[in-house]
Automatic annotation (TrEMBL):
Protein family according to the UniProt entry: Belongs to the glycosyl hydrolase 31 family.
Residues of the DUF5110 domain: 689-757
Residue ranges of every copy of the Glycoside hydrolase family 31 TIM barrel domain listed in the record: 251-579
Domain annotation Glycoside hydrolase family 31 N-terminal: ranges: 38-209
Signal peptide location: none
Pfam family, any one: DUF5110
Gene Ontology biological-process entries: carbohydrate metabolic process
Protein name: Alpha-glucosidase
SUPFAM superfamilies the UniProt entry points to: (Trans)glycosidases (SSF51445), Galactose mutarotase-like (SSF74650), Glycosyl hydrolase domain (SSF51011)
UniProtKB keywords: Glycosidase, Hydrolase
CDD domains: GH31_glucosidase_II_MalA, GH31_N
Every Glycosyl hydrolase family 31 C-terminal domain range: 587-673
Length: 799
């Protein structure tokens, strides 16, 4: 007889021998004698889904992460059976399923092992909560490296690390502190020059061990739910990241002003202070597109209200700011103050929209307003209600965008920092506890916010920001890396986090430039701005407890450096906008660690500092005080120093001079970098000419420029301009072909081409096979020419 005590401690359970197999179109089912079922779905030839049931029962198949627009369809599927195994073949992969253990091994068609189970799937019954803890262990391949997993404040390469996913409010977190604000259970493995990805689609607390406990084993597990993961094969890392991003979705294009420089603080109030900040930006000629209002604009921190003493006429203030080119962004938190006279609270109570504890009492927690209840954003009715709450704020008062904070959800003065685990959630018709819903709570809040903003800023495009996120939240919102600290270490952390987020499908990301907690000195602030202008989301934000953190808050030298780099960002807006277009359309990350750029160069596998901004700009921040330069690694190829135009051969470390007014920036040879004139805000100027910085290459390189109306939805009707340039350089000539798509007519008629690195003196120029007078193209020495934007072939011939 087996006693309850023996049952409780029997530990891990494993699949037994396969006794049944059947196929249903794109799904293969393998059933064991002890009731384990492996459902293997072929989404594409290179994407497989592995889903395990115990006791012959699958949970309802539901996911907040998977995009409705995911691309599916495969070219080949064949299953063979031997005495010991099943063999599954697609056009790119071979999967072996062992009959005795249900363990899998995935190879390419040449027999190279990509990923294989160690113990494989196993589970442990959870006697406290019910259900199972589900586990998977894999063999770590020789010299394997690991990347991804969102906003981890640790080295880019996760080899030897152990991390967990439980979205957590971590004020002033430190290096290697875990977990943080986001749960993105997706990682990339790289070995033998081949990449793959695994997305563990499980919303419970998840854990990952990358050869930490045992040097030859990589494992991941969850506190509940199913073992349900997607395997994505490259072999290039770029293919893995694009496929994962397609799986979980991309955002639509934001308005271009969302990519400008933004200024924030906890908090700008009263109204006179907000107006003074705006006035000073324009007076000092420092470009800025948005000013943020933190919680102090509210009446007693009640969401969707205004403090009439501090902001007596918010509609007029916002309108006046808009006339000067400023958009207004306000914060909304999830905690709703318990106040019977507060209309938002009344509506939620009347409609039963608040989360409840297991025994039916309302879940209650202290946040900024005091005791609060929390809407259940996993309930679609609650999301619809929440979206409608934005009507007055957006349509009548004129707020331009919304910032969701504290949405982990953060709860003060409790050890867990969040809601009790017995809190109940609708989970879109799949009722569950907070153990399952916690990681997606913030995601579903910002989803509701996004729907409301999208409705009420129409026909403009929505812009939303969130702190908490789960995989797939990028479909709804930009994000930042939370409450960091004004230290040099945090400058390094911000750099690593932004790269890692982009590798994890979430490119619209930035940090609190300068640090949220404590106060930077002028040098640190300048160095952080130099990094931050190369992040997709660019915002200064601080707690305000230690001093001011506006661009002019330090000495004149720092102010001038900050202005110079913010101006550079505004010049690069068409390049940045094109980056976002490719991210939105194709899932291409906006920032690329060097390992993503060249995984076959093993020197890139442990680099953290350098990254590729877009496709063709190499950036390396200076991350130490008193530095007049730094050593950096230039990836293979030839790169032009942005400041000196010196061409440098990559594939090596190099000392680069970088006083306080510069950081190392290099341009890939053959690149054509588009630039606008400096504007104080997006839309201030009517662009009369597009500058193209052209960097000579003895060979071929392609470049892209995407433009549209910078806001609104006409681009979805074909009113965009997509220019693809094909550059081909030879020792004595340069050819540039242009291929144009879309019906959008740009405001400018000409390109000004700044030519860098030409190895010859220009003798003749042909435009569309006809020679032109050099005066007609305004040839200036050997450096620049002006030509019609409508050319199809430019041929520059040397003497």
């Amino acid at each position: 007889m087996i006693t309850n005590t023996e049952l409780e401690y029997k530990g891990n359970l494993y699949p037994s021998t396969i006794v049944e197999f059947h196929r249903d179109t794109d799904k293969l089912y393998f059933t064991t004698s002890n009731g384990v079922i492996l459902e293997m779905t072929i989404l594409r030839d290179s994407i497989l889904r592995f889903r395990y049931a115990t006791e012959n029962i699958f949970e309802p198949d539901f996911s907040y992460s998977i995009s409705e627009n995911v691309s599916v369809g495969f070219n080949h599927l064949k299953v063979e059976e031997t005495t010991t195994e099943y063999l599954v073949y697609t056009a790119k992969l071979k999967v072996l399923i062992d009959k005795k253990t249900l363990r899998t091994q995935i190879s390419d068609l040449d027999g190279n092992i990509i990923n294989e189970d160690e113990l494989g799937f196993h589970w442990e019954e959870n006697y406290e909560f019910g259900g199972n803890s589900v586990k998977m262990s894999k063999i770590t391949q020789n010299a394997e490296s690991f990347y991804g997993l969102g906003d981890k404040a640790t080295h880019s390469n996760l080899k030897g690390k152990r991390v967990s996913n439980w979205v957590t409010d971590q004020y002033a977190y430190g290096k290697d502190q875990d977990p943080l604000y986001k749960a993105i259970p997706f990682f990339i493995g790289l070995h033998n020059n081949k990449s793959y990805g695994i997305f563990f689609d499980n919303t419970f607390k998840t854990n990952f061990d990358f050869a930490h406990e045992r040097r030859n084993v990589t494992s991941f597990w969850a506190d509940g739910g199913e073992m349900n993961y997607y395997f994505i094969y490259g072999p290039q890392m770029s293919q893995v990241v694009k496929a994962y991003t397609n799986l979980t979705g991309t955002p639509e294009l934001p308005p271009m002003w969302a990519m400008g420089y933004h200024q924030s603080k906890w908090s700008y109030y009263p109204e006179s202070n907000v107006r003074a900040i705006a006035k000073n930006f324009r007076k000092m000629r420092i470009p800025c597109d948005a000013i943020y209002l933190d919680i102090d604009y509210m009446d007693g921190f009640r969401c969707f209200t205004w403090d009439k003493s501090r902001f007596p006429n918010p509609k007029k203030m916002i309108s006046d700011l808009e006339e000067k080119g400023f958009k207004t962004v306000v914060m909304i938190d999830p905690g709703i103050k318990i106040d019977k006279d507060y209309w938002v609270y009344q509506e939620a109570i009347e409609n039963d929209y608040f989360c409840k504890r297991a025994d039916g009492a309302f879940m209650k927690g202290k946040v900024w307003p005091g005791e609060c209840n929390f809407p259940d954003f996993t309930n679609p009715k609650v999301r619809e209600w929440w979206a409608e709450l934005y009507k007055e704020m957006m349509s009548e008062i004129g707020v331009h965008a919304v910032w969701n904070d504290m949405n982990e959800p953060a709860v003060m003065e409790v050890p867990t920092k969040t809601a009790p685990l017995d809190t109940r959630h609708d989970f879109d018709g799949h009722p569950c506890s907070h153990r399952k819903a916690h990681n997606v709570y913030g995601m579903q809040m910002v989803r509701a916010t996004y729907e409301g903003i999208k409705k009420y800023v129409y026909p403009k495009r929505p812009f939303v920001i969130t702190r908490a996120a789960f995989a797939g939240t990028q479909r709804f919102s930009s994000t930042w890396t939370g409450d960091n600290v004004a230290t040099w270490e945090h400058l390094w952390i911000a750099n690593v986090q932004a790269q890692r987020m982009c590798m994890s499908g979430y490119s619209f990301v930035g940090s609190d430039i300068g640090g949220f907690a404590e106060q930077p000195n002028g040098e640190l602030f300048a160095r952080w701005i130099q990094l931050g202008v190369f992040h997709p989301f660019c915002r200064v934000h601080s707690s305000g407890d230690h001093g001011d953190q506006e661009p002019w808050s330090f000495d004149d030298e720092v102010t001038n450096i900050v202005r110079k780099f913010i101006e550079l960002r505004y010049q690069l807006l068409p390049y940045l906008y094109t980056m976002f277009y490719r991210y939105s359309k194709e899932g291409v990350p906006m920032l690329k660690p060097l390992v993503h750029f060249d995984q076959e160069d093993h020197q890139t596998h442990f680099r953290t500092d350098e990254f590729i901004f877009g496709e063709q700009i190499l950036v390396c921040p200076v991350q130490e005080p008193n530095a007049q330069g730094r050593r950096m690694y230039l990836p293979r190829g030839i790169w032009y120093n942005y400041w000196t135009n010196e061409a440098v051969v990559g594939g090596m470390e190099k000392w680069v001079v970088a006083g306080l007014d510069k950081i190392p920036i290099f341009i890939k040879e053959g690149a054509m970098i588009p630039k606008y004139p400096v504007q104080q805000y997006v839309g201030e100027l009517d662009i009369k000419e597009l500058v193209l910085d052209v960097y000579y290459k003895n060979g071929v390189e392609t470049s892209t420029v995407y433009e549209d109306g910078q806001d609104g939805y006409d681009y979805k009707k074909g009113r965009y301009s997509l220019r693809n340039f094909n550059l081909k350089g030879k020792p004595n000539e340069l050819l540039i072909q242009q291929f144009k798509d879309g019906s959008f007519i740009t405001s400018y008629e000409t390109f000004k081409m700044n030519l860098h690195g030409l190895p010859f003196k220009i003798k003749k120029i042909q435009v569309d096979n006809e020679f032109v007078d050099l005066k007609d193209v305004k040839l200036n020495g050997n450096n620049n020419i002006h030509i019609s934007k409508d050319f199809t072939l430019l041929h520059i011939i040397g003497a």
